[in-house]
Amino acid sequence: MIKINNLSKKFGHLTAVENISFQVEPGEVLGFLGPNGAGKSTTMKMITGFLTPTGGEIEVSGFNVAKDPIEVKKRIGYLPEGAPSYGEMTPAQYLEFIAQVRQLSGQKKTDRNKVVIQQLHLDKVLNQSIDTLSKGFKRRVGLAQAILHDPEVLILDEPTDGLDPNQKFEVRELIKNIAPDKVIIISTHILSEVDAICSRAIIIADGKILADDTPEGLRSKSSSDKMDDIFREITSGAIS
Amino acid sequence: MRNITTIFKRELSSYFATPVAYVFIVIFLIMSGAMTFYLGGLYERGQADLNPFFQYHPWLYLFLVPAIAMRLWAEERKSGSIELLMTLPITVGQSVIGKFLAAWIFIGIALVLTFPIWITINYLGNPDNGVILAAYLGSFLMAGGFLAIGSCISALTKNQVIAFIITVVICFLFLLAGSPLVLNFFKAWIPQNIVDAISSLSFLTHYASLAKGVIDLRDIIYFVSLIGFWLYANTIIVEMKKAD
Lengths: 240, 244
What we know:
- The complex is a heterodimer of chains A (240) and B (244).
- In chain A, 38% of the residues lie in helices and 25% in strands.
- By secondary structure, chain A is of the alpha/beta class.
- With 244 residues, chain B is an all-alpha fold.
- At the A-B interface, helix 2 and helix 3 of A face helix 1 and helix 7 of B.
């Protein structure tokens, strides 16, 4: 479970995130929506302990991010924006490194490795350096890294960006399959994705939460039935 | 400890996954050989010791160690992989130490590969091998000093070229801290005891006796605390600049 209380982040004079609060329970897939620069990535970076908040509290599975960062990081699987990794390594070496950091060993390590390689279809590129892989494969290597230790909490920053329609479909299926007992937050620009996998959506712009509802709930607020229209109406201030 | 080992192994193998390792080692061996025989006149001296070899190590390290150190953090920040590293359950200190040790051992490997020169000198005469071993140790310690400075500076910027140049300049100042070039600059406007303190920071002074095989505890403490200081600063800088 993730609890966020009055979270703020300022970069100099710029306020990236302003006093946001929400909770996510296990089993929920929360979609973070918003225009570029709305504060989605900043919020995710604060939950994962990469950025230090200017104000407010974050609690992940009962641990405070500021006080027990290592305990929090152990429980989170994180795909940063752009899926950065170590390009000179092969996916096999990279997953081995992540397994060691995540303290997986023995049978558990072998099993998890097998599962994620199969789930993300990495078997053909396992021994090719990550630098030489296509954007879609790089993204999938990043996802494999995030789910390798079967974390309680998954934070995925634009997980389907750069994937082709089939790959997008597969990643969505993957997220749906692992969702039942996990806390998942994904950010996305693709509004149809919210309908496809999210049980709840938060629309955020200029660092503030504009809407927090189920996809159906959002739809009922708008005259239109299309997610795109709802998004435009909410972020432009036409409805709230 | 376990995390340090994991980072250490990843870093060390990454040197050998790219041409960096091979280019560095080959250049290191050619340069150290050339300096020993041409500048140091190993044959002409007619003495069975490796002074001409060790004497030039500070100058060799001045350019080669910053070339290894510049990528340590600048590359992570540039590629964004620092976000991954910093969100894994590893502390910043563990990452700093793991990366430093990998680079240090890597330089150590290059240093060990200079062994043919040691064989040569043993073939030509009867050197004091204890002295040579001590000098190797001293040289390795000094390389650690250069490296710790470079690692810290590398965390300040995303640009490896800038990291390289600033590191060379700082290392150069540390090398020559005991020489008139640096001291005269300070003498005019700083009290004498501070000038003395600056002069005691000189790499060359501390290395000089080590290179002759004299292991003075003070010199070892100097290099170890220098490494400790710069790595501590490194940790703070990574913490501050990671998300910039």
